[in-house]
Amino acid sequence: VQLQASGGGLAKPGGSLRLSCAASGLASPFSTVWMYWVRQAPGKVIEWVAYINPAGDLEYYADSVKGRFTVSRDNAQNKLYLYMDPLFPEDTALYYCSGDPEGRLRGQGTLVTVSS
Asked: CA torsion 85→68→51→37, rounded to 10°?
């Protein structure tokens, strides 16, 4: 299984970033599985941030990002996205796409740093 996240970087508070995740080698077709974004801030445990149903028409968000982040997917391209706007310093973390909310099935992460 490969879940490769990309799109992270340095952003200023109030700025935006769009993360992407390319999925391959899943046990089930991408279009049939729930997908999650999880993150791990320095010194903290992994937390789920957002998730989306297989059809892409149901989205759920952690309270800390509700109203600021938007999760979406493109089943034809086997891709998952996370649009983040506005960003806060406390959003600084390694972000992963995962097949579960605990991040046990996560792939390679992408670092998001929010700082002025």
From this structure: 40
How far apart CA 71 and CA 115 sit, in angstroms, is 23
Eight-state DSSP code of residue 75 = T
* % of the chain with per-residue pLDDT over 90: 93
Task: Report the C-alpha gap between 108 and 116 in whole angstroms.
Answer: 26
- Does the structure show a pLDDT above 80 at 1? no
CA trace torsion 85, 35, 9, 46 (10° rounding): 100
Tokens of 86: 């506005």
Give the separation between CA 58 and CA 82, rounded to whole angstroms.
Answer: 14
What's the pLDDT band for 26 if we cut at 50, 70, 90? confident
Res 3 pLDDT > 80: yes
